[in-house]
Amino acid sequence: MRPYVEQAFSRDRVTIDFAGFSSETLHGALQEPLDKIRVGRLTPSSIAVRILVPDMSVPQAAPVRMADGADDKRLRDRMHDIMVSYTRSIRDAIAELGHLGLVAETQISVRVHSGTQFFKLYVINDEDAFFGYYPIRPNKVVAQGETIEIYDLVGKDATLFHHSINDGESSSGAQQVQQARMWFDSVWETIGRDFDLDAR
Q: Is residue 18 part of a domain?
């Protein structure tokens, strides 16, 4: 996906819609193009990013304790902290480009919803969509000082399927992009709730 993200930033206006579990992979994909903006190799005038993630203040289907499949607030608090950390970093890095006068317009919006996010979705410049499933795997994590065996959503190694409107207007790729945009907008505008990354 990284070459497509970088290519997107070669445009004058950049839009990225992301739906996923924590925005960790989005954070990684953005580092190189943002660095290239800082050194003047990429010069978009506008960057708008929308991030849609699950609300970890409510129980989720995963992560859960492996022993009994039960919800554990410590696991949700851990995932909340991971999401906030990566998403704040994305926001701050893009906002900095605006403060430095390198990008005229920057906008980062974050919304949460109450459903479990079983897949990740990127829609880039309304032209390319990347879609991948989060497998659920056994894992061991440390939450509030205790090691807990859990069933976890694992996204780092998820295969991303690429669809593009450049495949042709009547192609399945173009239809996938159209449906991805429709799905994202429908959740964003209905059950998505604004999330304050700086709230305590």
A: yes
